[in-house]
Specification:
- By secondary structure, the chain is mainly β.
- The protein has a single domain, classed as Hypothetical protein, similar to alpha- acetolactate decarboxylase, domain 2 (60s Ribosomal Protein L30, Chain: A).
- Helices cover 7% and strands 61% of the residues.
- The strands form two sheets. Strands 1, 2, 3, 4, 5, 6 and 7 form a seven-stranded antiparallel beta sheet that branches. A two-stranded antiparallel ribbon has the order 8-9.
- The longest helix has 11 residues.
- The termini are far apart.
């Protein structure tokens, strides 16, 4: 993955970055590594591109666990959205959701658990002016943003 700052911080401005993933890059690990390397405590991101395969997640309220849904075909990324916040360990964590479409145009989506790029994935990540923190929610067992 390559990155470049596209908006320098200044009075009242937030940093924005362009992230370009190459064939074979793993998306979730790349995003997490970038956020931690740049000490990003709050941000939102969006992206488009294509993937050679991914694993979606669907949160099952009854079991309080994610059901893993593998998608093994080449897909277009119709929409990748998410945020960065401090996790319960006070380190940056990412929360990505994605919608992809296969060769037949049918869309699938959910929580992005893992994905491999082919040939590219382009993400714009913009910091928020204050940090966000995730804390474990007793009802769901998930780490949710606390304001």
């Amino acid at each position: 993955m390559k990155s470049r700052i596209i908006n320098e911080p200044g009075e009242g401005a937030q940093r924005s970055f362009a992230l370009v993933f190459a064939t074979g890059d793993e998306v979730v690990a790349g995003l997490l590594g970038f956020a931690r390397e740049h000490e990003i405590t709050a941000a939102q991101f969006s992206g488009i591109g294509a993937l050679s395969g991914l694993v979606l997640g669907y949160f099952d309220w009854e079991t309080k666990a994610y059901k893993r849904i593998p998608v093994t075909e080449q897909v277009e990324v119709v929409s990748l959205l998410g945020n960065v916040a401090l996790g319960p360990d006070d380190k940056p964590s990412v929360h990505p959701h994605i919608v992809v479409a296969g060769a037949d145009g049918m869309a699938r989506g959910g929580h992005l658990m893992e994905a491999h790029v082919r040939p590219t994935l382009e993400i714009v990540l913009t910091e928020s002016p204050t940090y966000l923190q995730r804390r474990k929610d007793a009802a769901s067992g998930l780490a949710l943003i606390r304001l």
